[in-house]
Amino acid sequence: MANAFHYSIGRKFLQAISGAFLVIFLLLHLTINSFSIIDSFTGQFGSPEGLFAKGCEFMSLPIVTMMTPVLALGFVIHICYGIYLTWYNIKARGGYHRYEVPSKAAADSWSARNMCALGVIILGVLFFHLTHFWAYMQLPVVTGISHVVDPYVLLTTTFGKWWILAIYIVWFIAIWFHLCHGFWSMFQSVGWNNGIWMKRLKVIGYVVATLIFLGFVAVAVNACLHAHGII
After folding, report:
1. pLDDT tens-digit map of 148-204
2. Least C-beta-crowded within 10 Å: which of 31, 39, 56, 187?
3. Contact predicate 64/58, CB 8 Å
4. CA-based angle 15:119:6, to the nearest 5?
5. CA 190 to centroid of chain Cα atoms
6. Domain count across the chain
7. Burial 32-69 (b: 16+ CB within 10 A, else e)
8. Residue 26 class from Cβ within 10 Å (0-12 exposed, 13-18 middle, 19+ buried)?
9. Contact of 220 with 168, CB cutoff 8 Å
10. Which of 39, 82, 21 is nearest to 226 (CA)?
11. How far apart are CA 122 and CA 129, in angstroms?
């Protein structure tokens, strides 16, 4: 069993499992953030009784904050192993230029050929993101040093700055490209690689990636509009 990880399928399987874990987290994160848009329509944006406020309270529960190290480990495994796989594949093919030789796998899409670069961009902005939200919401709960900041205030003060909004939109685009390839690739790694299902999974992947992208952009733009008193 241990020898399986000396083969490509073993390495990709670990990457697929950690990727699936992160997709689930993104969907949960998007669901809670989307409550802020619902609050805008119901007039509850900024209210402690709003759905977004309730969702943030749920994310601050001890049982949820205890999962933070697990989530962090998932990110570390996925990103570090993704870099390792890229290096291994380039080395196995005799160098970077040989890695670019046309083939069904290498020419599948732009995102497929640049998963490592996209991962680095996502990781870089992730640290930027943590300084805006996690540091003011989950971290105070864990340490007990300071109080949790109003989540609506965090949204409006963060996305109210156009340059921060622009950085986040670039981040969301990178996530979209990463998911477009990563979603169906993780199913392929666990054996769902027949022609019929692969076509369906690629379509589903594009749909899921687009919904996640549009959802996060909508949350950010909605907060920006509130910050400037437009809505």
Report:
1. 678 899 999 999 999 999 999 999 998 998 888 777 777 766 666 666 777 888 888
2. 31
3. yes
4. 30
5. 21
6. 1
7. bbbbbbebbeeebbbeeebbbbebbeebbeeeeeeeee
8. middle
9. yes
10. 39
11. 10
Alpha-carbon separation of residue 14 from 9, 88, 144 (angstroms): 9, 15, 35
d(CA 43, CA 47): 8
Determine the residue type at 10: G
Residue 59 is part of a domain; what is its CATH number?
1.20.1300.10
Burial class from Cβ neighbours inside 10 Å (0-12, 13-18, 19+) for residue 206 reads: middle
pLDDT the model gives residue 124: 79
Neighbouring CB atoms inside 10 A of 179's CB total 25
- Reduced to 3 states, what is the DSSP secondary structure of residue 107? coil
Q: Give Dmax over CA atoms of the chain in angstroms.
A: 60
Distance CA 137, CA 209 (A): 26
Range of the structural domain that residue 150 is part of: 2-227
